[in-house]
Amino acid sequence: MSLTGNNMPVYATNPQNSGGSITNGTGAGAFGADTNGVTVYTAGSNGSRVYGLLLSSNDTSANNVYLYIKNGSNIYPVQ
Questions:
Q1: Can you give the pLDDT at residue 5?
Q2: Which of 3, 7, 28, 62 suits 39 as a labelling partner, its CA being 20 to 30 A distant?
Q3: Global pTM?
C-alpha cells in the first residue's frame, strides 16, 4: 500500500501498557464464549495494535487460556 496525495502515516502517540489477571476464583471458560472472560486490553476509539502477550503460571497442572477479540456482542476467537 502506498500513500497518495497528502496522506501521512499515523503512529501511536500514547503507547499503552495494560494487563489482566486470571486468578483461582476466575473459573473455567469455554472456547468461543465469553464465560468468565478477563479483559486484558481495551482498544482506543481510533483502533489499537497489540504487539505481544505474556502468560505465566505457577500451577502444577496444565491450564488452557483462550484468547478472543470481543466487539460489542460478537466474539472472534484468535487461533
A1: 62
A2: 62
A3: 0.57
